[in-house]
Request: fold
Amino acid sequence: MNEDVVIKTDKLTKRFGNFIATNEISFEVYAGEIFGFLGANGAGKTTAIKMLCGLLAPSSGQATIAGYDIYRQTEKIKQNIGYMSQKFSLYEDLTVMENIRFFGGIYGLKARELREKSIELVETLGLESESNKLVGSIPLGWKQKLAFSVAIIHQPKIVFLDEPTGGVDPITRRQFWDMIYRAADRGITIFVTTHYMDEAEYCNRISIMVDGSIRALDTPYKLKQQFAAQSMDEVFFELARGGKKAE
Amino acid sequence: MEDVMIHNLVKTYNKQTVKAVNDVSLTVRKGELFGLIGPDGAGKSSIFRILTTLMLPDSGLASVCGLDIRKDYKKIRRIAGYMPGKFSLYQDLTVEENLHFFAAVFLTTVRENYDLVKDIYEQIEPFKTRRAGDLSGGMKQKLALCCALIHRPTILFLDEPTTGVDAVSRKEFWEMLKRLKEQGITIMVSTPYMDEAKLCDRIGLLQAGSIMSVDSPDQIIRNYPHRLFAVKAEGMSRLQQVLRQSMIIKSCYSFGDYHHVTLQEETLKTIDGSELTERLTNVLKQSGFIDVEVKSITPGIEDCFIDLMKQS
Amino acid sequence: MKQFKAFVQKEFLHVFRDPKTLLMLFGVPVMLILLFGFALTNELKNSKIVICDFAHDEASRDITERLSAGGIFIVGQTISDYTKIEETFKAGNIKLAILFPAGLYDNLMHQHKAQVRIIADASDPNSAATLTGYATNIIMEYQRDLLKEAEMPMQIIPEIRMLYNPELKGATNFVPGVMALVLMLICVLMTSVSIVREKELGTMDILLASPVNPFLVIISKAIPYLFLSIINLIAILLLSTTLLDMPIRGSILLLLGESILLIITALSLGLLISNVVQSQQAAMLTSMMGMLVPTMLFTGFLFPIENMPVALQVISNIVPAKWYYTIVKAIMIKGLGIAAIWKETMVLAGMTILLLLISFKKFKRRLE
Reply:
C-alpha cells in the first residue's frame, strides 16, 4: 500500500453553540486505502464528513485533504474529491446519460473526454439499453452503482461515500463493493460510512466514533483482537453502548 | 387464527407500468412477530399501506384480524397501530405533546394505556419537553413506537423501523418488540437488514414485488439446498477473484471477513463431503495463498436470500 | 370533541412554534398598509404644476398666487399654448396643469359663472385625486373671499379632467384592497401549506390510518388561521383608521361578518389546492400565483377593471376578492348596510359553498 497521506486531521473540532458535534478528532488516511468511518447515529459522522469535504468550516483544529488546507483551500478540495450519499446522488428527472454529462461537466471534463467516458461508463455498468431512461425509473441498485461511477468520473483523489448501500439487495450490495475495490485499485482513496457491520470488514482500516470522538482506529482484525470479539458487530456494540450510557 | 391474510395481492403504480406487489400471498398468525425482509423497492411499504387501508390493491384479497381492507377499513383503522417508513411525528411538538396528541387521535389517554408503553417511554422521558425534531435517531424511533402503541392496538405494523438506525439502537428496538409480543400484540415488521430476520417468528423474503419464501427463519435455513463453506486467506480481494474463476466453485460472495462459497454439483458428487474442506484448502495453498482457512458452515438468511434471488 | 380539541391545540402549537412565519403573518399586512399610506403622503409636498393662463387678469393672478403659497404646489412655468400641456406631462415633471380661460374675471363678474380647467396626471391615481382636491379647495377659497367683496352670487366651476385614468381610484381604495389581499394570501397559503406539510412529513399517513375523520383534520386546520386572520384584520383596521384617516362609516359587525365569509372562501380554496399538490413548494407557488396575482390584478384596487378588455372583466368576476372589495368599500366608505350589498354577499357565499363542495369531493380518504 502506498503510504502517502491524503487525509490528515489534527484535533479537528466543530461546535454548534454549546454542543460539541465533533471533538478533537485526529487521524490519517493513506492513498488507495478503503477507510471505514463508523459510528452510531448522532456520533458526529455527518458533521465530520461535511468538514472534510470543505462544506463546513471547523471551529478549531487543522486538517489537510489531498494536500489542501481545510480552511483556506476548500475550492481546491472540492475539485479533488467525489461525494455520494444515499439521500442525494443523481437527478431523478434526468436520464442516465444526462446525469453523467452534467456531473462530468461540473467537474470540468472536456467534451471529447466526457463523451468517451460516458460511453465507457454505461458499458461497464451494463446500462446501454437504459442510458436514455430517466434515473427515477431504474432500480435502486443500479442507481447507486451509477451514482458511484459518476462520483469518481473525474478521477478524484478521494471519494466520500455516505451510507452508499443502505436498503440495497444483498447481491447488488456486494457488486457495489466490487466497484469500490476496483476504484481503490486505481488509486482512489475510499472514505465510507455504513450501518452494515459485515461491510466494516471489507475496509482496510476503520475508525469508530462515539459521542463526537474517535474511540477506536485500526484494521478490522486488530480491533477484534483488541476487544476480544468474534465480529465487528461485537466491537461496535461494545464501544457504542458505552456512548449511549453517557447520553 | 390468522391476524393477517393476504391472497394473490397485486398493486401497480404509474398506470400499471410499475409492479410494486406481484401476486403476494401470506398469513400472519395471532401473536406472531412476522418479518417482511427485502431491499428497498421490494414492495414492503406497499403491502403495509394496503394492510393499513391507506391504499387499495389492484386485485387480490387482504384482511386484518378478519376485517376486509376494502369494506371494513374504518374498523381496521381503530385496531391497528402503524409506524410508517420515515419518521412521521410532528417535529415542532415536544415528546410529550406528540404522545398526548396521538392518544387523543385514537380517543384514549396516555394514562389509560401507560402500562403498555411504560418500558419504552421511560427511556425517553428525560427528554419529554424536547422537540421531537431534536431527538437522536434511536430516540425518535422509540417515540414513534410509543405513539403507534398508545391506543393498545391488536396488531402493529412497523415499516422499516430500524432503517438508518445504528446497530446499538437496532438491537434495543428488537428487544422492545420482543417484550411487546409477550403482551400478546401481533407484530408485522419490515426490514432491509437480513441479520434481523432471525429475531422473527416467521419471515417472508420479498424481492421485486414477489414473495420468494415464507417460513420460520430456521426452516428457511434448513431448506438451503447447497453445502456452504466459509473461506478466508491473506488478500481477500484476490482470493475472491481466484475463487470466482475456479471451475469447481459455483458461487462466491463476501460476508464480513470470510467469503461464502458453494461448489458445483459435479464436484460434490465426486468427492466425499468430509474431504471437501481439505481439498479446498490445498487448492488455495497451491494458488499461493497463505493463512488459508476453510470451514463448513450453516448458512444465514442472507445466504438464503442470495440463493433465492438467483433462482428466480 | 376531544379529538377536535387536540387537533386545534396542535395547530396552534405549530403556529406559535414557528416565529418566522408568525412574524410574516403580521408583518406583511402592516408593511403593506404603511407602504401604501406613506407613499401617498410623501409625494404630495412640492408638486410641480404648470399654469396655462389665457385670462391674464385679476382672478387668474390671484389664484396662481394662492396656489404657490400653500407649500403643496410649485408653479413651475406659465405657458400660453394649450397644446404644450400634453408635452409637459409627457416630459414627466408636472403633476397638474391649471387652465384659466380668457376673460375669467369678466365672466365671473358679469355672468357670475366661469370655468377653470384642472388637468391631472392620473397614472398615479392617488396623488392625482389628492392634488386636484387641493387645487379645487384653493379655487373655492378664492371664490368665497371674492363673494364677501361682491354682493352678487358667483361661481367658478372647476372642471377636472383626469388623464390616463379617468375613473379615478383614490387613496381610500387601497385599504380595502390590502385587506382583501392579506386575507386571501394568509388563509389560502397557510392552510394549503400546512396540510401539504403533513403529507410530506408522513404524519398524514398515520392520521389516515387512524379512526379520525379526515374532515376533522381539515377543519381543525382552519381554526387557527381564522383566528389569526381576524386579529390581522383588526390590526389593519386600527392602523388605517388612525394613521391613514380611513373612515369606517358603516357597521363594524357587518364588516367583520363579510370578512369572515371571505376567510372561509380562502380557507376552502387552500384546501382545494392542498388536495391537488404534493409538496410544500408547489402549494406555496400555486397559492401565490393563483391568489396573489389575480387578487392584485382583478380586484380593481390597483388597476381599474372598467378599463380592461371585456374578456378580462368577465374573468374578474370569478375572483372572490373582487366581490369582497366592493363590499368593503360600500361598508367603509359609503356607509351602506346589508341591503346594498346582499348581491355581492350572495356571490361570495355561493363561491364558498361551491369550493367547499369540490374540495370535500376531491378529498381522499386514502393515499393515491
User: Anything to note?
Assistant: Chains A and C do not touch (no CB pair under 8 Å).
